[in-house]
Amino acid sequence: MTSAEEKRLAAEAAINHVSDGMCLGVGTGSTVELFIELLVEKVAAENISITAVPSSYATELRLHDAGIATLPLGRVTSLVCAVDGADEVDTKLALIKGGGAALLREKILAAAAQQLIIIVDSAKLVDKLGTRMPVPVEILPDALALTMDRIQKLGGSPRLRQADRKAGPIITDNGNFILDVTFPQIPNPARLEERLNVIPGVLENGLFPTYADVVYVGKGKGATLLQR
Ligand code: 5RP
């Protein structure tokens, strides 16, 4: 089974959480793109009304093209649920996110959601965070040298994420840089999340230690449900 097939199985499981009249947070990434396809099918088949709150320009454009009404993140304090992908999920449902550089808005969405539903393929499951993915950290461009220095003092090895088909670094939807930080180990993701976020110039980081309520992992004939 390919990772795309597994992602689709996870997205199919999450679609069951959608109901008529819902205002739903929608994250970013290739798994979420499959979820949006299924959302469009469900809205048409059941003639229901959905408003979506996107976590990125990429998702906003897809929703718009698909004819799904959107509400800006900046207008939302609370949502019944949000659906998003992840780069790593550990055994306690702590996550690393930010592979698509949307982690800042994704964390705002996660904080607003009463239930955060994560959809992943099985390759995303890890025993320990940091195994297959560095921790993305969104920083103010003017804080580049200072944040790199402070992150090194925390034991991390930061690399400025480079853009594809643009010279120089990636610029996020919020006008910032991303540092991808490798740590030799992450024994306490919640503590590291806090320590990164108090560095001046750090806007947010991709550690989501306690946000996920439900994780659907696509594999085999369906999706496995992991719950906090
Ligand atoms: C974007 C994210 C994505 O949810 C994460 O990178 C997973 O992406 P994909 O579904 O394409 O594997 O955090 O910032």
What characteristics describe this protein?
single chain; 228 residues; alpha/beta; Rossmann fold; Alpha-Beta Plaits; 2 domains; four-stranded antiparallel beta sheet; 6 helices; 30% helix; binds ribulose-5-phosphate
| Number of spatially distinct domains | 2
Radius of gyration: 17 Å
Order of helices and strands: HEHEHEEEEHEEHEEHEEEE
Strand arrangement, largest sheet? 3-2-1-4-7-13-14
Oligomeric composition of the shown chains: single chain
Large-scale geometry: globular
Taking all residues together, what is the mean pLDDT? 97
- Could you name the CATH class of the largest domain? Alpha Beta
The biggest sheet, with number of strands, parallel, antiparallel or mixed sense and barrel status, is:
7 strands, mixed
Strand-helix topology:
Layout: H1 3-15, E1 23-26, H2 30-46, E2 51-54, H3 57-65, E3 69-70, E4 79-84, E5 88-89, E6 95-96, H4 103-112, E7 113-121, E8 135-139, H5 144-153, E9 157-160, E10 177-182, H6 189-197, E11 202-205, E12 207-208, E13 214-219, E14 222-227
Parallel strand pairs: 1-2, 1-4, 2-3, 4-7, 7-13
Antiparallel strand pairs: 5-6, 6-12, 8-10, 8-11, 9-10, 13-14
Residues 27-31, 84-87, 97-103, 106 line the site of ribulose-5-phosphate.
Commentary on this structure:
It is a single chain. Strands 3-2-1-4-7-13-14 form a seven-stranded mixed beta sheet. Strands 9-10-8-11 form a four-stranded antiparallel beta sheet. It is of the alpha/beta class and 228 residues long. The protein has two domains: 3-127 and 209-227, Rossmann fold (3-Layer(aba) Sandwich), CATH 3.40.50; 135-204, ACT domain (Alpha-Beta Plaits), CATH 3.30.70.260. Strand 2, helix 3 (57-65) and strand 3 (69-70) form a beta-alpha-beta unit. The model has no long low-confidence stretch (mean pLDDT 97). It is 30% helix and 27% strand. The chain has helices at 3-15, 30-46, 57-65, 103-112, 144-153, 189-197; strands at 23-26, 51-54, 69-70, 79-84, 88-89, 95-96, 113-121, 135-139, 157-160, 177-182, 202-205, 207-208, 214-219, 222-227. The two termini are 27 Å apart. Bound molecules: ribulose-5-phosphate. Ribulose-5-phosphate is lined by residues 27-31, 84-87, 97-103, 106.
